Amino acid sequence: MAYSDLQSFIEDLDRRGQLHRIKETVDRVLEITEISDRVVKAGGPALLFENVRGYDMPVVTNLFGTLERMQLALGVADLDQIGAEIMSFIQPQEFPAGIMDKLKMLPKLAQLAAVIPKRVNTGLCKEIIIKDPPSLAHLPVLHCWPEDGGPFVTLPLVFTKDPQSGLRNVGMYRMQIYDERTTGMHWHIHKDAAEHFRKQKAAGGNGKMPVAVAIGADPAVIYAATAPLPPGIDEMLLAGFLRKEPVQMVKCETVDLEVPAHAEIILEGYVDPEEIRREGPFGDHTGYYSLADDYPVFHLTCVTSRRNPVYAATVVGRPIMEDAFLGKATERIFLPILRMFLPEVVDLNMPPEGVFHNCVIVSINKRYPGHAKKVMSALWGIGLMMLSKLIIVVDGHVDAQNLSEVMWRVFNNTDPKRDLLITEGPLDALDHSSPLPHLGAKMGLDATTKWPEEGHTREWPGDVVMSEEIRDLVAGRWSEYGF
Predict the structure, then answer these.
(1) What is the CA angle 46-47-48, rounded to 5?
(2) Do residues 150 and 281 touch, judged by C-beta distance below 8 A?
(3) pLDDT in tens, the chain (483 residues)
(4) How far apart are alpha carbons 348 and 106 in whole angstroms?
(5) To 5 degrees, how large is the angle CA 114–CA 116–CA 122?
(6) CB 175 within 8 A of CB 215
(7) Strand-pair partners of 424
């Protein structure tokens, strides 16, 4: 089902017993984080804090904190369904050869056209408009961890547009609150919004880059802001595809941007390409504090909202946290697209302990000597996979989702001199281990079965596995054994 807005998702979670309402007074400074951290690590429900000390607005966290809720948010019983559906559009089983085949494709094209973002005149996010002066003081922004540089907006959908092409981008970049009118804008140098910022700066003059931020939207829209789409592909189109309904967009009051009409809160403003300010530290999804650094500054020009909005936040920290399930959705949705470039790939696993970019496990159908190292190199050349610090390649019959099995293969199947590939290239901005920011070494491990053609002239042993005949015999007599 498609949720029209955040509150309809919250209501559905409540009906399903997947929401816990906390009516006691809680503090936005540290206390909500500690509660959320304990609950998400226990696989618990979404949390609605109805009474936040000093604020009239409730706070919701842990919306996506289990696989079940992530699937519910995107309207599927299995996340793999989405990737398969995307591929039915990208790679139809039969290309249209004649007029009749072309006509047969029209329903699919119409289905895709039906989810293009739709411009509307107004929406729930316009029920309250505050321009003179706008302020962030009424928002219960979380101060998450003891050494954080201040309170941070942790689940913002940041809307920008390419100053040359005018194409929209939506990303999720944390925002440190400096005062009632300014925040940090933590977009990493590899992200699309940072490229828009560079283009705006290169254009010269004193042009201010328009930015709009939605806080709290329907779950498909929130997920879409995290998706690693290629530049120029509209995240709101992906959200519409996931919802099976177009995202309704409304024009901002003070900047030339469109935002989701049914969002809870909209922050409008601009970033000055010539201004940077110290931002951080911040207790990040790596489980470490990302260090303080200089980032652009967002200036608030208007706040619009629903009449009774819910403030949506996420808490990140040492895995496993809520973001692990957003990452798992990306892994499953984009796997079929990855196979377009690397058809030998059987499965992909980006375990939460690797915080998405520090470890990628890939199983392949190996067809020739050096195939595993070819896959490593190819992955480092595809989009944000370039940031992967460790890539482990195993044979196609190995369960890439089973870390115990993968590590067993790694510990037993690798010769460090032969199977280790070390290269250098871009790294994630949050990687604190590299000698230089954004640049360092990356490693590939070939844990596949080795062939004589790869220099392994010794016999390779088989796995220890019981015969099917005996396994069936024992299974049939199991109750006789007294178990």
Answers:
(1) 125
(2) no
(3) 689 999 999 999 999 999 999 999 999 999 999 999 999 999 999 999 999 999 999 999 999 999 999 999 999 999 999 988 888 776 655 555 555 455 444 455 566 778 899 999 999 999 999 998 999 999 999 999 999 999 999 999 999 998 888 889 999 999 999 999 999 999 887 888 888 888 888 877 567 899 999 999 999 999 999 998 888 889 999 999 999 999 999 999 999 999 999 999 999 999 998 899 999 999 998 889 999 999 999 999 999 999 999 999 999 999 999 999 999 999 999 999 899 899 999 999 999 888 878 899 999 999 999 999 999 999 999 888 888 999 999 999 999 999 999 999 999 999 999 999 999 988 888 888 888 888 989 999 999 999 999 989 999 999 999 999 999 999 999 999 998
(4) 33
(5) 105
(6) no
(7) 441
Where do we find the tokens 């015999």? 473
Quote the pTM value: 0.90
- Residue (of 451, 185, 141) closest to 300 by Cα position: 185
Question: Which phi and psi angles does 237 have, rounded to 5°?
Answer: -70, -45
End-to-end alpha carbon distance in the chain? 43
CB 359 within 8 A of CB 351: yes
**Which residue in 37, 284, 323, 428 is the catalytic one?**
284
What residue ranges define each of the domains in the chain, with the CATH number in brackets? 6-312 (2.30.110.10), 342-454 (3.40.1670.10)
Q: Is 428 a catalytic residue?
A: no
Q: Per-residue DSSP letters for 127-195? A: SEEE-SS--STTS---B-STT-SS-EE-SEEEEEE-TTT--EEEE---EEB-SSSEEE----TTSHHHH
SS3 of 345, please?
Answer: strand
Residue 31's alpha-carbon distances to 137, 286, 466, in angstroms, are 19, 20, 52
Q: Check if the beta carbon of residue 377 is closer than 8 Å to that of residue 364.
A: no
